[in-house]
Amino acid sequence: MKIKNMLQAVKGFLKRNVYALTVAFSVLAVFSVITALSVADLYKKKETIEPVQTIEQNDNNETEIVPTETNSVIVFESPVKDAVVCKDYCDDCLVEDKTTGVWKTHQAIDYCGAEGTEVYAVYDGKVIKVEKDVMNGTIVEIEHSEGLVSVYKSLGSALVSVGQNVKTGDAIGKMGVATNEKADGSHLHFEVKLNGKLVNPNNYLGEAGK
Ligand SMILES: [Zn+2]
What we know:
This protein is an alpha+beta fold. Helices cover 22% and strands 34% of the residues. The chain has two domains: 2-49; 85-209, Distorted Sandwich (Glucose Permease (Domain IIA)).
């Protein structure tokens, strides 16, 4: 009997206060939605604000670039002054080779310039090859860190010798006309190798070299 009485009392209370209760529940519901949305927003903001850490402050308060999977620490300087790219890198498309008329890929960047235009080391390294090639003209190869090698072809002459250490910006050769790219005139055919494989030099060049 006691329980029945209590239930009836509760029922009576609900009936009398139906309006007030509805309002209270509605306010509660709206408040919950707002809270949920702002919490979600907070998480979203946290996700977008967090940067990919490539630049850090070291103990001496100097800025240090920290490598990530996609970013190399090495940034090449332009191999020529006032770069004029006359044939860009293209490994998934075919460009007509003016000399042979054959359509092929071009896994290098060609910089045009008058014969004798100086060509510079794109980064500190060691000269590992100086060669006069019948097809490619004079070739200079410089080994850098991180498995990178920069290759300079279509040179008329070399200004360095094998084993020599070079610094970024050192003159290493002069532009010439190579037999295999004769129709392109005097230029530098610039390649980059990563662990022995040709890669896109644009991935390593700073803005001045593109
Ligand atoms: Zn070329």
